[in-house]
Write a structure and sequence with these properties.
alpha+beta; Ribosomal Protein S8, Chain: A, domain 1; four-stranded mixed beta sheet; 2 helices; about 20% strand
């Protein structure tokens, strides 16, 4: 059971870098058959979290994972769950 973690605090104001980091972690999760990716957009204004959720909903990304879970105890965190056969 492998988990990956992506903290976006360092690239929060650079949209291109955010997309590159998100693509990289999702691609790595698929490559190693990770069970979960924890993405930390931080709490801030909520714009970065919205950006992350929009990225995850893109037509070429959505088929790669099973479900997204917004952490109910820490709204600055998103979990992406994968299911492998």
């Amino acid at each position: 059971m492998s988990k990956l973690r992506l903290d976006l605090h360092d690239v929060y104001n650079r949209g291109h870098d955010i997309d590159r980091a998100l693509r990289g972690v999702i691609d790595e999760a698929v490559r190693i058959h990770a069970t979960t990716v924890e993405i930390i957009p931080g709490k801030g204004s909520g714009q970065l979290k919205k950006h992350v959720l929009r990225f995850l909903a893109e037509d070429d990304v959505r088929p790669l994972y099973h479900r997204v879970e917004k952490d109910s105890r820490n709204w600055g965190r998103v979990f992406v769950h994968f299911r492998w056969k």
